[in-house]
């Protein structure tokens, strides 16, 4: 088993980090094909990869298989995600014990979104209402686990205001987090404003910007409407102009993300987190660009 490194230790020793997020595919065959296609990312040395956790723990087994294969077959430093959805404190404790026993030393701690058949987040019996509770729980149980939490440059959709969301973020950070990864955004100014406001709120942790290359217009519109991010008019217009031309859309989306990445790297972000939607080709393009900026 590859020894897993804490992300805060990597930040201290390596400078700007690069990470890629994967979500567990629906079938065993698709998991194998994701893992083998991700092999080509190895040469670009992601500092860590993260593996999402499905609503209601629906992907729990597949998440853990993807994490194990990314770690053992590809040698990646892996951060499993964990949510509070549908699980009691005891059940979460068992999952965390399992992560620890398997050698993981980083966890992305989230409240989670409601499962598909529900419109609102419901606290599980004996479970947690907010990610903050999960952060405290993990940090008390395993002080040597490095905990990441989510931040929202355009506000979490359920928060009544940006100010309230930032107040909640500060409490979550103080519960024992070591870094923040943001929700995806397409306008870097939103990210810079968020970092400034978070710092004014007393949040001094590293904040990784989350970037998603647009790969298909309908898909990205669905994603932004769910997560509360916005598409800048200029990007929207370009995508509309490309219409059904899938290759043109991909090119527009990749170039947009490349411009964002270049600007973020220049402005000294602690690293970049790529939501590459399990597409190693898109991840590869963005990772190569980031690595070449670092070597300049
Ligand atoms: C980097 C990243 C990774 C993600 N990975 C996953 C994943 O793997 N699986 C998944 O299902 N989802 C994932 N999500 C989505 C995430 O679960 C949702 O955005 C969810 O709705 C909120 O999770 P959270 O951890 O930010 O919640 P919280 O930090 O708990 O915040 C949720 C809402 O509650 C409010 N709040 C917080 N504390 C309080 C309080 N004390 N009183 C009142 N209100 C409060 C906040 O302002 C916010 O509006 C991810 C999101 C990001 C940005």
Give the neighbour order of strands across the main sheet: 1-2-3-4-5-6-7-8
How helix-rich are the residues, as a percent range?
40-55%
Report the uncertain regions: none
- Average residue-wise pLDDT: 94
Q: What is the C-alpha radius of gyration, as a whole number of Å? A: 18 Å
| Number of DSSP strand runs | 8
Which architecture would the CATH scheme give at its second level? Answer: Alpha-Beta Barrel
Main pleated-sheet profile: 8 strands, parallel, barrel
C-alpha termini separation: 34 Å
Strand content: 5-15%
Order of helices and strands: HEHEHEHEHEHEHEHHHEH
Instruction: Give the number of helices.
Output: 11
CATH topology name: TIM Barrel
Oligomer: single chain
The best one-word shape is globular
Which CATH C-level class is it?
Answer: Alpha Beta
């Amino acid at each position: 088993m590859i020894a897993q490194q804490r992300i805060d230790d990597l930040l201290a020793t390596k400078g700007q980090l690069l990470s890629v997020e994967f979500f567990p595919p629906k079938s065993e065959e698709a998991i194998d094909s994701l893992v083998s296609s991700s092999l080509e990312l190895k040469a670009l040395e992601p500092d860590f990869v993260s593996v999402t956790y499905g609503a209601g723990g629906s992907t729990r087994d597949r998440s853990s298989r993807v994490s194990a294969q990314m770690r053992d077959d590809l040698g990646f430093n892996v951060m499993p995600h964990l949510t509070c959805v549908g699980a009691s404190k005891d059940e979460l404790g068992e999952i965390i014990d399992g992560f620890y026993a398997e050698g993981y030393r980083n966890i992305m701690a989230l409240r989670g979104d409601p499962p598909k058949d529900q419109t609102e987040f419901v606290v599980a019996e004996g479970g947690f209402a907010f990610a903050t509770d999960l952060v405290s729980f993990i940090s008390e149980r395993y002080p040597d686990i490095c905990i990441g939490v989510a931040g929202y440059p355009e506000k979490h959709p359920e928060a009544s205001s940006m100010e309230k969301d930032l107040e909640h973020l500060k409490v979550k950070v103080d519960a024992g987090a070591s870094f923040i990864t943001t929700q995806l955004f397409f306008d870097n100014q939103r990210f810079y404003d968020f970092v400034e406001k978070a710092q004014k709120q007393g949040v001094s942790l590293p904040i990784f910007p989350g970037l998603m290359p647009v790969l298909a217009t309908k898909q990205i519109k669905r994603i932004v409407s769910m997560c509360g991010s916005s598409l800048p008019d200029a990007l929207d217009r370009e995508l509309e102009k490309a219409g059904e031309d899938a290759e043109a859309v991909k090119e527009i989306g990749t170039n947009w993300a490349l411009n964002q990445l270049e600007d973020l790297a220049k402005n000294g972000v602690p690293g970049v987190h790529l939501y590459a939607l399990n597409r190693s080709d898109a991840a590869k393009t963005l990772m190569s660009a980031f690595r070449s900026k670092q070597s300049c």
